[in-house]
Structure formats: structure tokens, C-alpha cells
Specification:
The protein is mainly α. It has a domain of 28 residues. 44% of the residues lie in helices and 0% in strands. The longest helix has 18 residues.
């Protein structure tokens, strides 16, 4: 009885290992999709500042790389720098 159970377990284990060999390749049939530059913003011009969304940081103008980099620097210094946050 133990030998039959061990052979069933071995057979199920071998089937599970062989099932992994049947995986289909994961290819992108549509081709590469290139994203827009991060500082380009969104295309809807609803906020008062001329674009973006309600979650757009104040002072940032969509499409302006320099203001984008300034916002990132400010966020890194004020929100992610533990030394500045503890003082």
C-alpha cells in the first residue's frame, strides 16, 4: 500500500514538473509601445494652470522639463529625506 501511494505521489510530481514545460512564449504581438516623456503631462486642459489633472502639483506646467525636475527635487528633499523630516 505504501509503495502504491509513493508511486502515485511520484507520478503526480512528474506530471506537475512536465506541465511547466508547456508554457507558451510571452511575446508582444502589437509591437513596442513607446510612452511619452514624463514631463509632458496629460492632454486635458481642465485645471487653471493650463493642463494636467486635479492631482497635478502646483507650480508645475505640463510640458516644461525644468519645472518637472524642480518638482522632483522638492519632493525628494521635503518628503523622502528622513534627515530633513526629523528636524
Amino acid at each position: 500500500m505504501k509503495r502504491a501511494a509513493a508511486s502515485v505521489i511520484a507520478l503526480l510530481g512528474a506530471a506537475a514538473l512536465l506541465a511547466a514545460c508547456g508554457e507558451k512564449p510571452q511575446t508582444n504581438a502589437q509591437g513596442v509601445k513607446h510612452d511619452a516623456a514624463p514631463w509632458s503631462g496629460t492632454s486635458n486642459g481642465t485645471p487653471k494652470e493650463g493642463g494636467g489633472t486635479a492631482f497635478t502639483a502646483q507650480g508645475w506646467k505640463p510640458g516644461d522639463k525644468a519645472s518637472w525636475e524642480a518638482q522632483l527635487k522638492t519632493r525628494a528633499q521635503n518628503g523622502q529625506n528622513e534627515y530633513n523630516r526629523t528636524q
